[in-house]
């Protein structure tokens, strides 16, 4: 790529299949930048462990199947969630009204399993915490890309220092490999408890 001095290739947690490995690489054409990066690398001792490399290599053949299954399930859940009265917005790049959709549509054909639900501001953060706590199939956690679905609540007002476009509390979902109908039923039960 002309004019690009630094390229960062990050492997997310999807390649490992367990949501438990995160690694990447940095490549550059600028000699001075390379020397700074090499110096930093030597002082910090950053490197990929043999077990992490083995885990990735073992899981890579199933990556397309897992990624596309999670993408299809996330799209179904996003479409379903957008129709729920408790949710005012669904953030998922495949949703036409989601910020960044046009850019995504030009460059991508799949979006994996991450989506965010913005709940109506009438629900308190405590109510949304209870919603997440009450889910049976979703675990609470941050390790995206594994086989198990995860949910994490966020306070939309405290996400950004310069203000937030979100009025209500957010719930980030990472869709795993469970049956999508079961995940929707679990979310529907939680929405019913919210009222």
Descriptive report:
The chain contains six helices and seven strands; from the N terminus they run ββαααβαβαβββα. The protein starts with 5 loop residues before the first strand and ends with a helix. The model has no long low-confidence stretch (mean pLDDT 85). By secondary structure, it is α+β, with helices and mostly antiparallel strands. The chain has helices at residues 31-44, 50-59, 63-81, 101-107, 125-134, 180-194; strands spanning 6-11, 23-28, 87-91, 114-119, 139-140, 150-154, 170-174. The chain folds into two domains: 6-61, no CATH class; 63-194, Aspartate Aminotransferase, domain 1 (Alpha-Beta Complex). Helix content is 38%, strand content 18%. The relative contact order is 0.15. The chain has a five-stranded mixed beta sheet, with helices on one face. The protein has a two-stranded antiparallel ribbon with strand order 1-2.
Q: Top keywords for this entry?
A:
single chain; 195 residues; 2 domains; alpha+beta; 6 helices; two-stranded antiparallel sheet; 18% strand
